[in-house]
Amino acid sequence: MKTSRLILSLALFLPVLLMADDQKYTVAGLTEPAEIIVDKWGVPHIYANTHYDAFFVQGFNAARDRLWQIDTWRRRGLGQLSSVFGAEYLQQDRATRLFLYRGDMYREWLAYGSDAKKIAESFTAGVNAYIDVIDANPELMPPEFDLLNYKPARWRAADVVRIRGHGLWGNVGSEVQRAQIVCQADLETATYWQSLEPEWQTRIPKGLDPCVIPTDVLDNYYLAKAPVRFDSPAMAMNDAKINSSDRSLGSNNWVVAPARTSTGRPILADDPHRTHAVPSLRYIAHLVGPGLDVIGAGEPALPGISIGHNDRIAFGLTIFPIDQEDLYVYEKVDDGYRYREGARSFRSIVESISVRDLDDSDVELKYTEHGPVVFETDTHAFAVRAAWLEPGMAPYFGSVEYMRASNWREFVAALNRWSAPSENQVYGDVDGNIGYKPAGLFPKRAGWDGLLPVPGDGTYEWQGFFDMDVLPEEFNPERNFTGTANSMNLPDDYPIETYPMGFEWSASWRYNRLWEVLSSQSEHTMEDSAALQRDYKSLMAIQTIKLIPNAAGGPGADLLRKWDGVMHPNSSAGAYFAIWYYRHLRPALAKVLLPDEPELVADMDTNGVLRLMQEERAQSAVAASLETAFDETTRSLGSEPDNWRWGDIHEIRFTHPLLSFADSDLADSMNYPAYPRGGGGYTTNNTSFSASDMLVRAGASYRQVIDVGNWDAATMTNAPGQSGDPRSPFYDNLLKGWAEEEAFPLLYSRESILENESFRITLEPK
To answer: Is the pLDDT of residue 18 over 50?
Structure first.
């Protein structure tokens, strides 16, 4: 794909409508008239006259606002990038196809609910109906298709659920890294790299040689989950590795009972943290039809709402890290692998991949008893067993069931179908009830814990799955609030030996901060929830500073000891702390821990850092790191610490993935301004970043705060905007407010929506 052929003039796009005028379309597949009222923040309120027409219109509208995004999502997920982008994407397509769902579709559809197939059929018919509209009105084609010279593809209902690589999955990557650390050192060293919670001692599985596992054993696994890179396709796998290893990614949610709120109603908040993207990963929509009145955010390529509320209940999610993956190691025998008392042959599938401007390419996909083969050597093969290849595991699609619940009983019953990704759900309803329920497919491992790769000889097999009721649950707890932040939140008496769901949680800093604030507020307000979502106080930084050796002096140590730990954009100490911790302290401790292979533990978790800081062997390294960090900060930000600003180096820079392909006029419409940000990966206002450049790379693009029952009082953000089309007024309209810690109305009543109407789309059945 040559950049030179992709430069087009904005003049090609000028005839398009302003995309904020009233429109009317007659479309095939709709059964009754429907309308979309878009409010002045870009949120579509969909009014349909039948239940399934609401999902049809949701698909139509998703294509209207996000067609290039969801078309790319589909091609990436099905392994069809090469057909439009060329041979550079062939390996990514092959890797993706290894992890497609290939099971029985009858069981697959029923896993989500009795009408899941009908919902998916309606949604995809709506997407296709908008593509028909574009065929008749070429000026509506999003500019990205013209830049890359191809057209959007039509969808099938099965596409929605066969695609599995877009979820947040684990823990096969940490299994491999732990094995590599054990090979170089021992299990004790691995506990510094990743703490195990609740307290747990893993063992090397019998028959496993950790040193037989190649460094690049998971390259195909990561490539199957990788984003699409247009500037440098070869870097996509590296992006996936970074996303998978970033322990600061996650989410916050909480709900406060009426007894502790100023409104006398539950207040529910949620802010899922993911890698920032253009357009946003989330899309806000409101679906109204018979038996349906739900609003909130979902993923634009999926029907339904996963985070939001209907007219009776509100809900919000975070990741609950059930271990749903294992790496199997096989001894190769002839044309197969050793299994039990004999041998098994690899199962092979040959598929033809269409490649733009070239002949089709045949690729072989190999499978074992446990899953896709991701790597082979002369003597061994390696396969990933993933629960997310079981029926019912399409990420977030299960929300079509729980979003229609009207009470706690129905909500929990719907979550019993939920499989992926494993989630903490918080709940509030108009009767004043609050609750918490985790859900996800939970493999049974008899006699082993899933923390290291295992031999694939039949010794280590899953024994089915646990029922959902073995997971903890809260309903109207005495403390009058509950919430989660991806950290270890199992009850003290939880029987982890009986139900070993997983031991690799996010660090507890955000969770502790939530609990610290919520437990101190007897009359929690909507503003309190918003402030907590935007909170910059780093308990991690405060604790780390306490462990600086008393003997360590100098201007850097003095600056930190006087600091309150609030990583405000204007904080000088915050800038120095980030440079010290990520670029100097942690690398120095990695060399102390594993001198010959420090890169294996370079991303050690905060518990490991704090533990090592207290040991004699690390004291001189800690002190020296303060000095080298101060020198670097002085070179980067100037000789006067009073002039240092965290926000000067910690910016959010949303960038359209095709910005470099556009001419100057089109690039101007695609471009976003940069904004300084506070916080970090361990503040409740999560602004995760890479140590290499300190730029914000992940966090809460979508936020919601809901006064349950007073629905029009709800607020939201969705950065950078609702639309993915650079020609739309809603392309970047929410960015400035989001960056400056503001919020926008999440309107629900038709009266309020009409008062804030921007334009209307009327749909008539053909």
So the answer is: no
Give the residue-averaged pLDDT of 360-377: 98
- In this prediction, residue 244 carries a pLDDT of 74
Name the token pair of 124: 């995809």
Cβ atoms of residues 435 and 476 within 8 Å: yes
d(CA 647, CA 569): 4
CB 443 within 8 A of CB 465: yes
* Separation between Cα atoms, residue 200 and residue 760, nearest integer Å: 57
Are the beta carbons of 576 and 646 closer than 8 angstroms? no
Q: Residue 243 has what pLDDT?
A: 74
Q: Are 27 and 685 contacting, i.e. CB atoms less than 8 angstroms apart?
A: no
Q: Give the mean pLDDT of 134-153.
A: 97
pLDDT band at 184 (very low <50, low <70, confident <90, very high): very high
- The residue extents of the domains of the chain are 539-566+572-644, 659-756
| Beta strand 313-319 pairing with 423-429 | antiparallel
What is the sign, positive or negative, of the torsion defined by CA atoms of 275, 740, 758, 138?
negative
563: closest CA among 540, 529, 594, 589?
Answer: 540
Tokens of 265: 């109603």
Name the region of 291 (left: φ>0; alpha: ψ -120 to 50; beta: rest). Answer: left
pLDDT at 236 over 90: no
**3-state DSSP call for residue 663?**
coil
CA distance 203 to 184: 16
Q: Where are the beta strands (DSSP E) in 520-622?
A: none
pTM over 0.90: yes
Place of tokens 């070993």: 500
